[in-house]
Each structure stands twice: as structure tokens, then as C-alpha cells.
Amino acid sequence: MIRAIIFTLLVVAVAVFTIAANLDGVVNIHDPSTLVMCNGKYYTYGTGGSVLVSDDGWTWRRGVSPPRRGLAPDVIKLGDRYYLYVARNVGAQPKAEINMLWTKSLDPESPDYKWEEGGVVAGSDGIEDCNAIDPGLFLDPNDGRLWLVYGSYFGYIRLVELDPKTGLRKNPNEKPRDLAINCEASILIFRDGWYYLLATHGSCCRGADSGYNIRVGRSKKVTGPYLDHEGIDMILGGGKLFQGSGGRVVGAGHFGLIDVGQGVQKFSMHWEADLDRGGASVLDIRPLQWRDGWPVAGENLKEGVYEIESVRTGTALEMAVEGMPVGGRRMRGPGGPGGPPAAGAKPPAGGPPGEGGPPRGPGGGMFAGTGSPIPAQDAAQVSKNWPEGKVGVRMDNYFLQAQQKWSITRAPNAGGFMGSPYFKITIAGTDRTLAATEEAELVVLPSFTGGAEQLWRIDQLADGSWRIMPKAVPNSKEPLALSAVGSSFATLSKFDPASEKFRWLLKTP
Amino acid sequence: MKQILQVMLFAGTALFSADFSAPTLTSVTTKEKAPDPAGFIQRWIVLEPIPANGLTDAAVQAIVKKEYFPNQFTVVPRDGDKVKVGETELTWRAMDTKLYNLNLFHYARAVNKPTSNVLFWAVTVVNCPRDMPGVRLAIGSNSASVWWVNGQELIGIYRDRQTVIDDGVSKRITLKKGPNVIRAAIVNGGGATDFCARFLDPDDKPLKGFTISLVDR
How many angstroms separate the Cα of A422 from the Cα of each of A5, A56, A458, B113, B206? Predict the structure, then answer.
């Protein structure tokens, strides 16, 4: 997080860039809070009173600042109240305090939008080994207890218990527990019997020179100790890397869990510098995977050409046209490979093409190939045989054929959902578009016209596979997902997180 | 490779007797039959094989759409019915399979007919106590096959392939109260040949609560 020097910089806050590498709209923020939903909108609060609001988690805009601006807020909804915890320096760091304020609505248009001051819940006196900033809230799903972690590089990350009925300290005189050191922007999450402490290491607030990176340790008890994958206690500086820099973004900080429901999780964070946005500090939302008991940062889907392969069946989605083998059809018998050469026989020279087939290889025989590289198959080579109009969708073993290669690209001006845009899915090299039908089945349309049934939301699941959902299915009120109901047939059905039918691999051909 | 195995099998295995004794198939002895615990339909009436060659989409569609005998797409035959295909008289035989699948290789061998480059027609009747909406026909076959329910073509799977449970699956349909006719055309290239079929309910679970029967002789 946050040193006081950057506070001013952020208030001045940055020109708005619209190059949408990650997310769309206005995404400039530093130290974003955990996302919270209110009246159908998503909110996140950052340092200096910055607020971002979104209707879909993809396109963001500026919101109205709360009355108390400060450092690296976190927000949590408990009952009918939204509690905002925000730190301020009380003189020079590390003398600081964390204030709580609450409201019944985050929407300034609501009559319930009224912030109330709740008071100080934690502080540091400037001498002790703690800098009481960067609050992170955690409601334990096991017992309903509410916890606050806080702290920065001066001393320890600390844990205190709050009262979920008031948002205030449960036992104000109880000594805070020390959980970690040499980090900030901490927060707790729970999964499958483990508590995870995510915290940010490295330096912040230096643009593309920031070393910010998110690390994690885990414990069987909320009070720790939190050990990393090598058994090093985070209070000794341990921490397994969760998210570092990469691509066009530098300096990952301030993890916030987003539970999309049905087992799908994502996380929010900020980058210290997005090179595509002039090095500005920006919000990002990415998929959260779990591997061997550890959270793993996923990546939103990149545009490209993919084989869409079912985890369940191992077969690939294809437009239902008769495929042509890559390199042309090779016949058995006199016109093509007839069998392996007899022992001791002299290999025949390369022969003329069999009828309808490619040239025979110099070695002859059914396993000899053509003797030269076979180029990849694309739609231009074979599409003249494809029917016009709507075509069905089915699945088959992957043969590297053109009707099995799907181009997945961002649909223009179509919005998105929680960190990722809506995509159109077309047969590569054509405008033939995958769409949902009124019967909740699949069809390939002759061209993309932008309808909601042609827009696809693609979420990465905890195991790294993908869930593929149309934005809307005609005549269906509930969301449906692509399902491999058979080895050779896919449909749209209600998502079941426990079923492999809904898990897809997107492989680069 | 499959063609080679086929040659070996013909050379090394004695033919079944013509009285229709097959390892996995039995004659029909009851009026009705329930699907097995996994929902598979184990009672069918199958025509002796018709010579046919081709497994691509276009070839199989051409094979199954050719008219070989009258009322080919509507008839519900009785056990022992005969049809003439070209100059050859072929017999429909009712049978139960002991397994989830019906082994057409066993059948063809049992009646001393070829098993390679052939087309089998199979029919059964599913009796539903009520309308059953949102169900799917789910089949597997060796090799290619095309399937109809109450005259509507629902599934086509092609190429040289092995039988996989729930390989070809239809779109959602409604099985109507009373009899529903299931018709299949299975085209084999060489070697083993069989098929399996069941219905899936709206939750993709095996459909139960119906019976299978054939027209009495």
C-alpha cells in the first residue's frame, strides 16, 4: 500500500485511458477494497476516496466518495449494513488508526445512503512494531466470527476480533495477535479446512518500478501460524507467490476475494502500473484457481483460435459438417497406402497421387506419409463443401480440422461480466457464429449479428478449465452453460459445479 | 488394422448355428421388459444385415436413406417377418440382450450372415405411462448409426468408431404417453459391431418408468 506521499498523487489522479487490456471504462484506483454488491451494482473503494462502480464487473466508472477518505479501505456487508474500514495517518507513519463507518446503502441515489461514523477499531502509537493501516475484513464461515487484519511494513500484520453486530472491537483490551511481517495489504480467506493469509510483499507506489507482489500462507487456525508452501512462517517473512508482474502490468497488490457463486471464484487487485494505460495504477479482476490446497492466480481468456475440448469426454466441439482429413483423404489399397513393405523388400519410390489423395511418400506403405510437410488446415481450404445457412453443432475426436477450430474474440461494445468481456465464438477464418437456440441447444449461424444468444461469457474454474455460457438463451430465464451431455453432442444446461460436463479446455491448435 | 482382425476372426471361429444361439442374446419370452438399472434398452427386433459400404457422413446418410424394403421408416415388424432386399430375403428377429449393448456381430454370426460392410436395421417400442418431456435419446454404436424416434431423425454419428455409452445424444424431446417407436440404422465397416441405447431424463440421469415391448408374432 501506501505511504503518505502517494496520497496526494492519487487525488490528482491520472488521466483516464480507455485502452482496455484488463477491464473497461474508468479503472484507475490504488489499494482497492474487496468488491461488494449493492442494489445490483459492484463497488470498490480505494485510497484517497476513489470509488469505482460497475453494473457488470467489466465496465467501470467513478463513484461518489465516502465522507471519510483515507488509506486502503476495506468493506464488508453484515446484515443490512455495509461497514467501511479506512486508515489514516495520525501524524507521521507509523502512527495511524483505522476508522469504521457504516451505511445501509452504497448507492448515493438510495434513501438509505447515509454514512455513520463508528469510531476507531485499531491503532498504532508510532513506536510499537506495527503501522495500523491497510485493514482487511474476514467473516469466518465456520463460526460467524469477524476478524480484522491490518498492518504494513513497519512491524507486524496483526489480527483482532470484531463484533459482527456492531463492526467494533469485540474485546478492545485484548492484545492483537501478530501474524506476519514485511508485508501489507493483508486479508484472510477460508477454503476446505484452511485459513489463508494473503498479503502483499515488495515496494509500492513507484509505478513500473514497484516490486509489489501478492503472497500467501495458510493455517488450520485463524490465529495462525501461517506457513507458506515450504513451511516458512509468514511472521518470519515467508509467503508463497500468488500473483507477480507479467505481460503489460507491473506490481500486484491488495487481493480481494470475489465469490461469483456455484464454486466460481475470482479476485480483485490493483496493478501499480498498467503499461497500456500509461503506467497508471488500475483495478483488475482475475480468475481464482485452487491447486494442491493453494490459491493460484488465473488469467482471463485471451483472444485467439482454440480447440474447445470437453474435460468429461475428451472430444472437441465442432460445426457439424463432414470433415476432410488434414492433407486430404488417403485411401487404402492401390490408390494409397496398402500396408507396410514386406521384409527385405526395396521401398518403392514415391508414387503418383492416389485418386483423391495426396502424393505417396518415398517410403511407400500405409505408414509412410507423403514425404513432405502437410500444412495446417484452415477454413479456406475446405469450406466450399460446407452448407450455407444454419449448421448444427456436435463433438468429435479432435482431428485438427477447420470445423473444429474456433476463433474467440471480444465482442465489440457488448460489455462483459466480472473481469472479462463477452466473446463471440466463430469458426476460425469465417464469420460462422456459435449461438444458443430457443430450445437451449447449439447452432452455428452464418454470421455474427450481435444478439445476446451469440455472446459468450467464459469463466475460468478452480481447476483451470473453463465454463462457457451464452449471455442469454431465448425463452430461458435462467443462465445455462455449455454441457458435454454426450461424447458427440453438446447442449446447454443448468450449471452443476460438481459435473465435468461443464468443464472445457481451450487449447491452442 | 480392424480389417486384418476381421479376417482372422472369420478364419479362426466356428459359425454359430442357424437356430439363433448367440452368447449374449436370447429369445424374447416376456411380454414387456423394463430398462436395465442403468436405463439401457435390452429388447430389439433386428433385421438381418444388408450389404452396405461407407462410413463418412455423406455415405452413411445415403445408405440409410435408400429404400431397401416397403415402409422402411415406419414399419414395426413382428418376429419372423421377412422382407426382400434386392433378390435376398431377410428376416426380422426379436431378441433380448444380456448386456447393456446389443452385439450385432454375435447376431449376424448366429444367423450365418456377414458382419463387415453391412447395414443393420433395429426397432423397438418404448411404452410410457405419461408424456415424458425434456428427455434425450443417448446411444453408442459400432460403427456409424442414424436414429429416429417416432419418425423424427434425431442422431447421426459417423466414421469408424467403437460403442461408447452416451456417445450420440439427441436434443430434448417428449416421449408421448403410450408407444414410442425407436428406429436405428447401424452401418459397420469391419470387425466388431454393436450398439447401446437409453434415454436420459431432464437431469441427464438414466430415464426409468417405462417398458419396452415388441409387436407379438
Answer: 39, 11, 8, 56, 35
